[in-house]
Design brief:
- By secondary structure, this protein is mostly beta strands.
- The protein has no helices and 11 strands.
- It is globular, with a radius of gyration of 13 Å.
- The protein starts with a strand and ends with a strand.
Length: 116
């Protein structure tokens, strides 16, 4: 079955860290661009970070630059989002995605809540 399975997330205090994982099954992640998006209540889904297939070049939203790191482990067919110095405004459901045969594939979503 072709799917993206997310793990990680949860509740963390401001200033804390979390790592999200996105594992691909049924296809190879290595040759594809992968991205993380997030959606907070009442807001549109926004792009957080992207990692390219070749060379692993990355791009980040200004709001997370310097705090979040997107990476990939091709041997594990997995993309990660390391989130440091978390702020309450980072609270959202986070989604990974990639393209597969011309269709956007989404992970199931993971809740991240930053609160004291």
């Amino acid at each position: 079955q072709v799917q993206l399975v997310q793990s990680g997330g949860g509740l963390v205090q401001p200033g804390g860290s979390l790592t999200l994982s996105c594992a691909a099954s049924g296809f190879t992640f290595e040759s594809r661009v992968a991205s993380w998006y997030r959606q907070a209540p009442g807001r549109e889904r926004e792009l957080v970070a992207t990692i390219r297939s070749s060379g692993g070049g990355t791009n980040y939203a200004d709001s997370v630059k310097g705090r979040f790191t997107i990476s990939r482990d091709n041997g594990k067919n997995t993309v990660y989002l390391q989130m440091n110095s978390l702020k309450p405004e980072d609270t959202a459901v986070y989604y990974c995605c990639t393209m597969y045969v011309g269709v956007v594939k989404w992970g199931q979503g993971t809740q991240v809540t930053v609160s004291s």
